[in-house]
Design brief:
- By secondary structure, the protein is α+β, with helices and mostly antiparallel strands.
- The protein has a single domain, classed as Aminopeptidase.
- It is 30% helix and 26% strand.
- It has four helices and five strands, in the order E-H-H-E-E-E-H-E-H.
- It has helices at 21-30, 37-47, 99-113, 128-136; strands at 11-15, 53-60, 65-76, 79-90, 119-121.
- Strands 1-2-3-4-5 form a five-stranded mixed beta sheet.
- Strand 2 and strand 3 (65-76) form a beta hairpin.
- The radius of gyration is 15 Å and the shape is globular.
Length: 152
């Protein structure tokens, strides 16, 4: 699926498998999130065991993985169930090919099938191209916040 103004690329989206761990790890590193393939294998196994989480990959005609998306259901006391995009990466050589749009469409469909009323995502403030991409898909900026973490 390629939209007007995009490079033509035959892309197929499917559920991630253990053997996708290495390309998923390589793609994660492109965004500055290095991770070992072994860790990705373990996480895919864990995520595939729950109905509230999904990982899809986008691959081209030769089976080469060019992108991935992770979505999960978020249930909170103060709002309706929603899906969160845990991560989305498209290989820098394949951006603007329609792969990211197709991955998002699959995640949104998955979320609707689970009764989610919305899809939320977060993106680094410096990723202006990502902001434009999400806005082109109909996403609106709803707030700016600080992210805190405590390692356990």
């Amino acid at each position: 699926m390629a939209a007007s103004g995009f490079k033509t690329l035959e892309v197929t989206v499917r559920l991630a498998r253990i053997e996708d761990a290495s390309p998923i790890a390589q793609l994660s590193a492109q965004l500055g999130y290095p991770v070992a393939s072994e860790d990705v294998e373990q996480r895919i196994t864990q995520l595939n065991q729950t109905a509230d989480s999904v990982v899809y990959v986008a691959e081209v005609h030769d089976g080469h993985v060019v992108g991935w998306i992770h979505a999960f259901v978020c249930r909170t006391i103060e709002s309706d169930s929603r899906a969160e995009i845990g991560g989305l990466v498209v290989d820098e050589r394949h951006r603007r090919s329609g792969a990211g749009r197709l991955l998002m469409q699959h995640a949104e469909k998955w979320a609707r099938e689970r009764g989610c009323k919305a899809v939320n995502l977060r993106t680094n403030v410096v990723r202006k191209d990502a902001h434009n991409f999400y806005q082109s898909l109909g996403y609106n900026l709803v707030k700016t916040q600080h992210a805190f973490r405590k390692n356990l």
